[in-house]
């Protein structure tokens, strides 16, 4: 009797095994790693080998069952399912090494530019992405920050090839911030801030020109090449005093300078006309700033500007003494009596250190004043101030 040929199971199994092994090797990406296949990630995309800011980590929260994990990985290799990992962004203070919260970051596909996600750091300075596919290049950059930190200009590009990829962004405080602290809730408190405005004295050219001299210092700090005399003569609204029927008439300081800053008989001007002088000058040179009148602003608002590095031109009394209203004239528009200050002054706050203001005083030079006493004087004469700000603000 003739013997039947057996089905060639063994060769077929060997063939299937070889095919399966080939599929697993292909799906594992090892051929790309050893250079036998071309990667989907361009070589010049900017990934830095051994970037110290990028740390690949194992996810310690995953199931530790070795068999289950091994089976899952084998099935992924067989089916071609792409593994996924997460990006863990850590924002840390560059000097204090504490985590910084409320920092906004954007994650993009570095090849296509597609925005994958925007994340915000928690109070520990950590933000985690959603799962992202392996063997893809991702670009991470900072979009927004919180005061007193600058927005980082760093951009980190990485290839996803670990369960967790930790990247660190160092956060630097703004230049004017000299000392700061963090409370138990992670909030940052600026204790000391300072900006080096130029010391400009009003005398001898402008014996009564404290307002325009202070404004000149603030404009110079913002890059404008203007001197106090030109700013006064060409841009400051002024109206003269005159006598009629034996009575003295003059403008309201909210409308124009009373007299002329060049004259010893001149008086003063408030924030509105001073701001107009600055804005008219800036427009004449096509500048990119504007003067903002802060009249009526609170103590907290003024201090915030100082801490943010914005010099504040502000009206107080000479040496913070009680206001002296021992003079008057009739307003040239209405005939009403205007009671005038004999000891009004205008200075620039350019720093704060605890309970002390740093002040550029156009009569006395660089001085320090107690913050509480300073605001008592400020509020006693109407709470008047102004700042020079970029147009986008």
A few lines on this structure:
The chain is an alpha+beta fold and 393 residues long.
Measured by DSSP, the beta-strand proportion falls in 25-35%
Annotation field: number of helices: 8
The count of DSSP E runs of length 2 or more, i.e. the number of strands, is 23
Shape: elongated
Q: Tell me the helix content.
A: 10-25%
Give the structural class.
alpha+beta
> Regions with pLDDT < 50 over 5+ consecutive residues?
none
> Could you give a short account of the major beta sheet?
8 strands, antiparallel
Mean pLDDT: 88
State Rg: 34 Å
Give the CA-CA distance, first to last residue.
101 Å
Question: What can you see in these coordinates?
Answer:
It is built from 8 helices and 23 strands. By secondary structure, the chain is of the alpha+beta class. Strands 10, 11, 16, 17, 20, 21, 22 and 23 form an 8-stranded antiparallel beta sheet that branches. β10 and β11 (188-194) form a beta hairpin. The chain is elongated. It starts with 8 loop residues before the first helix and ends with a strand. The relative contact order is 0.10. The mean pLDDT is 88.
Give structural attributes.
393 residues, alpha+beta, 8-stranded antiparallel sheet, 5-stranded mixed sheet, 23 strands, 23% helix
Q: Layout of SSEs?
A:
Elements: H1 9-28, H2 30-33, E1 54-57, H3 66-79, E2 84-93, E3 104-109, E4 115-120, E5 126-128, E6 132-133, E7 137-144, E8 155-159, E9 164-171, E10 177-182, E11 188-194, H4 210-221, H5 228-235, E12 238-239, E13 242-244, E14 247-250, E15 257-258, H6 271-284, E16 289-293, H7 299-307, E17 312-317, E18 327-331, E19 337-340, E20 344-353, E21 356-361, E22 365-370, H8 371-380, E23 385-390
Parallel strand pairs: 2-9, 12-15, 14-18
Antiparallel strand pairs: 1-9, 2-5, 2-6, 3-4, 3-7, 7-8, 10-11, 11-20, 13-14, 16-23, 17-20, 17-23, 18-19, 20-21, 21-22
Helix pairs in contact: 1-3, 4-5, 4-6, 5-6
């Amino acid at each position: 009797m003739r013997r039947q040929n057996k089905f060639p199971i063994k060769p077929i199994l060997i063939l299937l095994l070889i095919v399966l092994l080939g599929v697993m090797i292909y799906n594992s990406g090892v051929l790309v790693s050893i250079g036998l296949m071309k990667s989907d990630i361009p070589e010049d995309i900017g990934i830095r080998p051994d970037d110290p800011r990028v740390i690949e980590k194992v996810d310690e929260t995953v199931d530790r069952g070795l068999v289950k994990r091994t089976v899952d990985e084998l099935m992924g290799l067989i089916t071609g399912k792409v593994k996924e990992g997460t990006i863990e962004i850590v924002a840390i203070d560059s000097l204090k090494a504490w985590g910084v919260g409320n920092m906004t970051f954007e994650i993009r596909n570095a090849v296509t530019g597609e925005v994958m996600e925007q994340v915000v750091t928690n109070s520990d300075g950590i933000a985690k992405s959603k799962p992202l596919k392996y063997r893809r290049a991702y670009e991470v950059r900072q979009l927004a920050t919180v005061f007193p930190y600058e927005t980082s200009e760093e951009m980190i590009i990485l290839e996803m090839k670990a369960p967790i990829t930790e990247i660190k962004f160092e956060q630097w405080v703004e230049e004017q911030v000299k000392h700061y602290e963090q409370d138990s809730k992670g909030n940052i408190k600026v204790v000391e801030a300072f900006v080096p405005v130029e010391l400009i004295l009003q005398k001898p050219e402008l014996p009564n020109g404290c307002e325009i001299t202070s404004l000149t210092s603030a404009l110079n700090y913002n890059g404008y090449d203007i001197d106090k005399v030109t700013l006064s003569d060409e841009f400051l609204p002024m109206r003269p005093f005159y006598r009629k029927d034996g009575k003295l008439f003059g403008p309201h300081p909210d409308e124009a300078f009373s007299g002329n800053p060049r004259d010893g008989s001149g008086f003063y001007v408030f924030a509105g006309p001073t701001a107009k002088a600055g804005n008219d000058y800036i427009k004449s040179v096509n500048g990119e700033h504007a003067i903002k009148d802060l009249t009526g602003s609170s103590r907290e608002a003024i201090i915030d500007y100082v801490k943010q590095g914005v010099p504040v031109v502000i009206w107080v009394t000479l040496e913070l003494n009680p206001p002296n209203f021992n003079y008057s004239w009739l307003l040239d528009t209405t005939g009403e009596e205007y009671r005038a200050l004999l000891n009004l002054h205008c200075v620039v706050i350019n720093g704060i250190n605890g309970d002390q203001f740093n002040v550029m005083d156009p009569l006395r030079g660089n001085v320090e004043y107690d913050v509480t006493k300073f605001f008592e004087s400020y509020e006693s004469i109407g709470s008047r101030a102004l700042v020079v700000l970029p147009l986008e603000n």
